[in-house]
Amino acid sequence: MKQLVTNATLLTFAGPDEPRAGAAASNVGLIRQGAVLMDEGVIVAAGPADKVLAHPDSRKGRVHDAGGRVVMPGFVDAHTHPAFAEPRLRDFELRAQGKTYQEIAAAGGGIISSVSALRGTTERDLTVLLQERAARFIECGTTTIEAKSGYGLDKDSELKSLRALKHLGAGGMLGVVPTFLGPHAVPPEYQGRTGEYARFMAREVLPVVAEEKLALYADVFCERGYFGAAECTDFLQAARAAGLGLRVHAEQLTHSGGAKLAARLKACTADHLDHADDDDLGALKAAGTVACLVPGSNHFLGLGSMPPARRILDAGVPVALATDFNPGTCPCWNMQEILAIAVTRMKMSPEEALVSATVNGAWAAGLGKTHGVLAVGQAADLVIYDCEDYRELCYWFGKNLAVTVFKAGKVVHSTAELRV
Amino acid sequence: MKQLVTNATLLTFAGPDEPRAGAAASNVGLIRQGAVLMDEGVIVAAGPADKVLAHPDSRKGRVHDAGGRVVMPGFVDAHTHPAFAEPRLRDFELRAQGKTYQEIAAAGGGIISSVSALRGTTERDLTVLLQERAARFIECGTTTIEAKSGYGLDKDSELKSLRALKHLGAGGMLGVVPTFLGPHAVPPEYQGRTGEYARFMAREVLPVVAEEKLALYADVFCERGYFGAAECTDFLQAARAAGLGLRVHAEQLTHSGGAKLAARLKACTADHLDHADDDDLGALKAAGTVACLVPGSNHFLGLGSMPPARRILDAGVPVALATDFNPGTCPCWNMQEILAIAVTRMKMSPEEALVSATVNGAWAAGLGKTHGVLAVGQAADLVIYDCEDYRELCYWFGKNLAVTVFKAGKVVHSTAELRV
Fold first, then answer.
1. Looking at chain B, which residue has its C-alpha nearest residue A323?
2. Which chain B residues have any C-beta within 8 angstroms of a chain A C-beta?
């Protein structure tokens, strides 16, 4: 069905066909009195309402009067770990009591507790959990997520996670870009044999992932005490040879070489980057790698520090913002919350934050040519928000202003009515 | 109409008839398989479902099957400034650019910009704004707010603010405890004449507030550069003589004597307390004054520090959590967000946070004998949340899990359906 959104304060993010850096990182493409016409899952007209209404099909569709509200592309959340079985409530309590990561792990918590729970969950049950979580993402204005495996850490459980993500994506309500994150942590049965575990993932699991087309990307946790640069390189090169794109968890806890590795392999994204130095940023810029920042995890862990967004922007590296949705360090599915954290704690401008959450998010998810921008031929993924000034999306916090969410031209969420 | 909520994971907060401190500050009164029966605006039975279902009226009402979900008292948000005309989006941007409070004020921002906007808004328009904001509070599970004037700073505008709050409260959807905060800042026309302004508020405005019963409380901003202890004392003593209860903005920016002042006058609350010392806490404890903490403003301002919740709790002072909802330093209406900040950044336990947001919030709003607890004879203000473990209310952040909200026994908000 054709759908027409009129009377919109439109943010198109129209611009060069590349991740936005430098001055372009602040350009939201604002059109007051804008409109968007959708058909067959794509945008057939977008721009000033008088021009869109001149389109011959503009009178044939269902009309959504935005009443002057903000309309913009759905968020593309380019870093999530949704394939988990249970929230980690006990860890959360222990952390509030001042317990360290080591003490929490010793008490049976940490990532290994998620691994144990995930292994005990069926593909069917995991799919249902993912569908419930997807509804949360959608109602907050996210229309696509990059979604990682990585709580299975054995062949069957990693494949189960990716298959469940495939079922989720097949539903069509929420776009899913699946990522194989076998080297997320070393499971107990491989303790002390990190290299062997990474090789097992590359030789035994990756071929099945590729054969069944279960993932578009491969990712690694490059960090001291987890996977070193050499192990990560071997795994990622195997992934590239198998046809997957690359991502790297880089410089989160320490300066460990992940950013330079990502640049050397021309990975799509380097993620976290809390400890990235200027050399790292130069390498990322030269490689065209997107810096995917996830400040929600710093917030949830109560850290005093944040990823160095300003330094990264000033270096001319394109920035994507993502939730890092996961049960241990960031139980947040709401990109509007990440926008607020980005401005209040990373000192991004509202415009930079919005570009990072849409068009740059799309590039960070490998969808830059088709998503994240409201322009003819692009995916009809867009959201009407209950505000007339786009800065409000970053200003109010702990909130959800999404009122109507379109995915591929279909309404996938709507509050009861628009109060026009 | 009678209403029955069954199949609930019930948090009653039943306990001693006083603000909770010490061990009682952690007691949520959990009842699995609980139920609540409401009639005529109050609770007529609450407890284990089998006992509640034995009540003769239990079959006569509308039944809400909570499906095992958490059911607890509505939040009582005991510190809000909702009577403003406009969000301060420009200040927000400038702060992200690293501008100081002084630079923002020089650019035409800061509280004086809110004063100017409020003075130019009619009582009717302000009432509509308050109603829209009330809907946001309600949908997030807040059933009562303490609400301050304080952006008028002249006689007509302060009275206009309080009258608009009275209209809001009369609607019955959201409980409103109005507070007269004339000495919030010194308006431009009284610059350099702080004492004269405070006396004007006490002698010319307060009598009308009292006469028209426009406020239940009086509040002052006790701070260096704002109102000193002597000025605050004079104003608050006049307010007490006029029949109002007392509250004090204390020790927010510097250690200025507000906490001891609150204790000496046996104020209902001392609010903020970022810089309170152990002597202050001893005085508050002895006075029975509730420490009302508003960490959302620290978060929004990007401060590294938080109110010293653990030290306050350890001193045996009862703690209430509130939003501080206001356009300058905390544009957040969602108490669930404050719970998350309280645990992640102030290291409160989930139980302490929940007690602080309900029963202690009620005491901090002067409603401790009738609100904040699910027990026979108490106000039927309660909320069904879409989680089965109450810790989830603090754990997920940037979210709203409220599905059905009852105010005085009536449904005032409900999502489309419960997914049982």
1. B398
2. 87, 89, 92-93, 95-98, 136, 140, 296, 299-302, 304, 331-334, 336-338, 340, 343-345, 347-350, 389, 391-392, 394-400, 416
Cβ contacts of B69 on chain A, cutoff 8 Å: none
The encoded tokens of residue A215 equal: 């993932």
In chain B, what's the furthest Cα-to-Cα distance?
67
**Residue showing tokens 């952006």:** B151
Starting from the edge strand earliest in sequence, which strands make up the sheet with B217-221, in order? B75-80, B142-148, B175-180, B217-221, B245-250, B269-272, B290-293, B319-321
ipTM: 0.96
Whether residue A9 contacts residue A68, with contact meaning beta carbons closer than 8 Å, is answered with yes
Do A267 and A247 touch, CB atoms closer than 8 A?
A: yes
**Cα maximum dimension of chain A:** 67
In chain B, which stretches have pLDDT less than 50? 417-420
Q: For A132, which residue in chain B has the nearest alpha carbon?
A: B419
Q: Which CATH class is domain A75-364?
A: alpha beta
Measure the CA–CA gap between A400 and A414, rounded to whole angstroms: 12
Q: What is the pLDDT of residue B106?
A: 87
Q: Cβ separation of A391 and B89 shorter than 8 Å?
A: yes
CB contact under 8 A, B391 and A347: no
Kindly list the distances between the CA atom of residue B304 and the CA atoms of A97, A302, A348, B297, in Å, as whole numbers in the listed order.
Answer: 19, 10, 17, 12
For the stretch A282-299, pLDDT in tens is 999 999 999 999 999 999
User: What is the distance in angstroms between the Cα of B138 and the nearest Cα belonging to chain A?
Assistant: 13
Contact (CB<8Å) A302/B334: no
For residue A416, what pLDDT band results from cuts at 50, 70 and 90? low
Span A325-333, mean pLDDT?
98
Q: What is the pLDDT of residue A101?
A: 83
Nearest CA in chain B to A398: B398
For the segment A356-369, what is each residue's pLDDT rounded down to a tens digit? 999 999 999 999 99
The CATH H-level superfamily of B3-73+372-414 is Urease, subunit C, domain 1 (2.30.40.10)
- Return the amino acid letter for A269: T
Residue ranges of domains in chain B = 3-73+372-414, 75-364
Give backbone dihedrals phi and psi of B295, rounded to 5 degrees, phi first.
-70, -15
Same topology between domain A3-73+372-414 and domain A75-364: no
